[in-house]
Amino acid sequence: MTPGSFEYHRPQSVDEAVALLGQYGDEGKVLAGGHSLVPMMKLRLAAPSHLIDINGIDDLKGIAEDGGEIVIGAGTTQAEVLASDLLAESCPILPEAAALIADPQVRNCGTVGGNCANGDPGNDYPAIMIALGASYTLRSADGERQVVAADFYEGVYATAIEDNELMIAVRIPTHADGAGMSYRKIKRKVGDYAIAAAAVTLSMDGGKCASATVALTNVADTAVLSAAAADALVGSAVDDKAIDAAAEKAMADSDPAEDLRGPVEYRRAMAGEMTRRAIREALARAGGS
Amino acid sequence: MTGISLTINGETVEAEVEPRTLLIHFLRESQNIIGPHIGCETSHCGACTVDLDGKSVKACTIFAVQADGADVLTVEGLAEGAELHPLQQAFTDNHGLQCGYCTPGMLTRAYRLLLENPDPTDEEIRMGIAGNICRCTGYQSIVKAIREAADKINAGEGAD
To answer: Does the pLDDT of residue B159 top 60, yes or no?
Structure first.
């Protein structure tokens, strides 16, 4: 299978890349890791006239701390996330999730920005970024803007990014309050998207849950922020009753489609079970039991 | 057409390619390097795995133009003349293949895995080759072969 013809561009800087995006509009597509885009091009579900390969742009790579935030360049690969000492120390949910994405070869190519910006409900980072309160830095020739992850996803492959914009970084607030985090995913096999997955952050104060976020992967048209599930935890001791209540709310906020991964009832039940497991792990990491 | 220049198994290659030419097609059809196989063509099976600038990648999902300036190693580059790479010998000795279709990808991936992690546990081997599908062996003998090759390489027997 060979994709349709296109003109290939390999900009060396962000400025050059956004100039090309501005020039070609909806006829241009950004090539990052390519492992979502290239298969779609082979099937002619995507047929860009201009492919803008951002892999040569050094400014899009790297993981650093910047005044209370962790900043991950959009071109940073999953393999680089897995190998990052900084993330292992300060945001372990990301390398743990990276290990659940695809396989070693694909992780050498796939990027954080691609996973976040692609808009496929099966991508793992959107729910995690929503749960972490992350925001995305989008750049066009006209300037730069920050979009909160929770506001970014509009539908299947529909996001807030404009044709002339490039995602250049993900900014994640450092969780200094001792919050525990967890991402639990059930999938059929290596390389498959989640049947369901849940990202949870949770902080405890005096035996009570002080704050929590719950977000879900691949059980609706976009990643789902379940405020109701979080509300069921906040103020509770995060005992079994509260955990079950939160899982029920997460299931109610799920709207999975029946597909090869199972019927609706099963996938919704798995959203609940992944929520339970992620809450328990986040709780243990937050110093609760 | 776009001009590219790259190194394949130690040899410099210059060629003109269409941007849409996938690296696997360039290797097999333009360069007659037919070790890397085309399996699923959707980046799942790993039969097309090659080493690109020291990283394992699936050549069915990378364009040849992206390999401009790169150093590519395929299964053809593993043996030293008539002497098999320890991995190739271990696959032979341990029945690490039956039909052989996945083998070039398995070997190329295992080669990089052992450079990244010279003494992997069986679990690490399994996770390391998780992107390579074999439909014959049930993987046991592949894991055993990689384990044996690692031991031999670490004992100083064989190259690399």
So the answer is: no
pLDDT at B78: 98
Which CATH code of 1.10.443.10, 3.40.50.1100, 3.10.20.30, 3.40.50.2000 fits the domain covering B2-77?
3.10.20.30
- Please answer yes or no on whether A34 and B62 come within 8 Å at the CB atom: yes
Do residue B43 and residue A42 have CB atoms under 8 angstroms apart? no
Q: How does pLDDT run across B121-137, given as a tens digit for each residue?
A: 999 999 999 999 999 99
- Domains of chain A, by residue range, sit at 7-53, 58-173, 180-285
Amino acid found at B133 = I
**Closest residue on chain A to B109 (Cα):** A105
Q: Nearest chain A Cα to B128, which residue?
A: A104
- Residue A4 backbone dihedrals phi, psi, to 5 degrees: -65, 170
pLDDT, mean of residues B31-58: 97
Instruction: Give yes or no for residue B158 having a pLDDT over 70.
Output: no
Domain residue ranges of chain B, discontinuous segments joined by +: 2-77, 86-154
Which residues in chain B have Cβ-Cβ distances shorter than 8 Å to A109? Answer: 57-58, 61-62
The span from the CA of A1 to the CA of B67, in Å, is 19
| Chain A environment of B65 (Cβ under 8 Å) | 8, 10, 53
Q: How does DSSP assign A20-86, residue by residue? A: HHHHHGGGEEEESS-TTHHHHHHTTS---SEEEE-TT-GGG--EEE-SSEEEEETT-BHHHHHT-HH
Inter-chain touch A104–B131, beta carbons under 8 Å: yes
Name the superfamily (CATH) of residues A180-285.
Answer: CO dehydrogenase flavoprotein, C-terminal domain (3.30.390.50)
Please write the tens of the pLDDT for every residue from A93-138.
999 999 999 999 999 999 999 999 999 999 999 999 999 999 999 9
Cβ-nearest to B130 among A34, A55, A104: A104
In this structure, what are the phi and psi dihedrals at residue A85, rounded to the nearest 5 degrees? -65, -40
- The model's pLDDT over B10-32, given as tens digits with 9 standing for 90+, comes to 999 999 999 999 999 999 999 99
> ipTM value of the model?
0.95
Q: Do A55 and B66 touch (CB under 8 A)?
A: yes
**Interchain contact B46–A (C-beta under 8 A):** yes
Helix (H, G, I), strand (E, B) or coil at A246: helix
